[in-house]
């Protein structure tokens, strides 16, 4: 079972887009994949995949109600599917009030059961729900969480349930600092939660061609402190188009989504994007990243062949098992 939280202390480090891309890559490798969106803010996985139509409805059943063991329906009714076959538990506004709802539950239950607040397993609730009550391990090969880094209770629940982190970092003073803080943070979480947390890998992303960026990249690739299987370049146009295509970077490139001006208005449509080698190379790296997580971190078997079927163009086949997988074969 592949279980991971895509984690970064700082905002805007490409967590959400990366979660979507890893999930779709795993699905394409033959892994039945579920993503859980724990971020109640706009621009989350739920909006990326265009799901969660009841996320603002306070009466709708949602994940928080299930985590707090007060469900309003069947757990499986929370799960939606996306066009790219990845399943998703969408976000809901109630995630924003998780801690206050949790405190109420703790007050009630500790009062009834005569246990102290400190004894209450506040970080184990998601774990209990996913693996003990719902036994999702029997249904899925992979579960990925996009958390809200600022919400400690939800984040700790996510980490307690998943145990493994993938950490995207951005080349900036800030990116650097957040990484230095990462080990300390993992240590603190391990002490607090009394579990071992694994860092699968660090993924430098948004790395441009400037000297400063390239030095940053070398610094990451050289270190023995953690694995850095791939570096993702500055791909703003490709990743931004994901929000229009409502799906992964694989979808953007295959369906050739592009945003352009038409009669004075900006429109986004499939069928217009040029097939660029550097974007195909980025897809290969995302696939390689997913393979690293699946195989090197979790010992899973995956299909190492990435087939890209472009709209109105030739199909390309990239075999990661090839000695030089950068070489793409045409069919
Ligand atoms: N490799 C990249 N290069 C340049 N831009 C990127 C790259 N990956 C993603 N982006 C863009 O950066 C923006 C932020 O990405 P994203 O929403 O994934 O970050 P986040 O860490 O989830 O942010 P938040 O902390 O707000 O949740 C998006 O507009 C996305 O399209
Ligand atoms: Mg996000």
* CATH topology descriptor: Rossmann fold
Domain module tally: 1
Principal-axis shape equals globular
Task: Give the N-to-C terminal Cα separation.
Answer: 34 Å
Q: Look at the helices and sheets and give the structural class.
A: alpha/beta
- Show unreliable segments: 327-331
- State the helix count: 11
Give the assembly state of these chains.
single chain
Assigned CATH architecture: 3-Layer(aba) Sandwich
If you had to describe this structure to a student in words, what would you say it looks like?
This is Chromosome partitioning ATPase. There is one protein chain. The chain is of the alpha/beta class. It has one domain: 3-Layer(aba) Sandwich (Rossmann fold). Helix content is 39%, strand content 18%. The protein is built from 11 helices and 13 strands. The strands form 3 sheets. The protein has an 8-stranded mixed sheet with strand order 3-4-2-5-1-6-7-8, sandwiched between helices. Strands 11-12-13 form a 3-stranded antiparallel sheet, with helices on one face. The radius of gyration is 20 Å and the shape is globular. Bound molecules: adenosine-5'-triphosphate (ATP) and magnesium ion (MG). Adenosine-5'-triphosphate binds next to α1, β7 and α9.
């Amino acid at each position: 079972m592949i279980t991971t939280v895509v984690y970064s202390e700082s905002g805007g480090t490409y967590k959400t887009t990366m979660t979507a891309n890893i999930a779709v890559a795993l699905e394409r490798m033959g892994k039945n994949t579920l993503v859980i969106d724990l971020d109640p803010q706009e621009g989350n996985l739920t909006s990326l995949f265009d799901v969660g139509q009841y996320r603002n409805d306070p009466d709708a059943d949602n994940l928080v109600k299930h985590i707090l063991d007060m469900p309003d329906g069947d757990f499986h009714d929370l799960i939606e599917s996306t066009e790219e076959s990845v399943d998703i538990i969408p976000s809901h506004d109630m995630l924003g009030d998780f801690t206050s709802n949790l405190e109420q539950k703790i007050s009630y239950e500790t009062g009834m059961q005569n246990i102290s607040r400190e004894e209450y397993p506040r970080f184990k609730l998601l774990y209990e729900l996913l693996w003990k009550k719902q036994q999702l391990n029997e249904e899925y090969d992979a579960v990925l969480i996009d958390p809200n880094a600022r919400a400690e209770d939800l984040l700790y629940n996510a980490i307690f349930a998943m145990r493994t982190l993938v950490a995207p970092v951005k080349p900036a003073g800030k990116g650097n600092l957040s990484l230095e803080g990462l080990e300390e943070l993992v240590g603190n979480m391990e002490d607090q939660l009394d579990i071992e947390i694994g860092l699968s890998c660090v993924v430098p992303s948004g790395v441009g061609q400037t000297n400063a960026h390239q030095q940053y990249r070398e610094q990451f690739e050289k270190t023995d402190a953690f694995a850095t299987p791939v570096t993702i370049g500055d791909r703003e146009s490709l990743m931004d188009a994901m929000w229009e295509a409502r799906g992964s970077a694989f979808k953007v490139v295959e369906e050739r989504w592009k945003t352009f001006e038409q009669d004075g208005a900006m429109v986004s449509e499939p069928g217009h994007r040029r097939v660029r080698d550097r974007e195909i190379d980025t897809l290969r790296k995302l696939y390689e990243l997913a393979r690293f997580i699946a195989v090197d971190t979790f010992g899973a078997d995956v299909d190492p062949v990435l087939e890209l079927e472009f709209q109105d163009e030739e199909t390309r086949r990239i075999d990661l098992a090839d000695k030089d997988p950068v070489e793409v074969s045409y069919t």
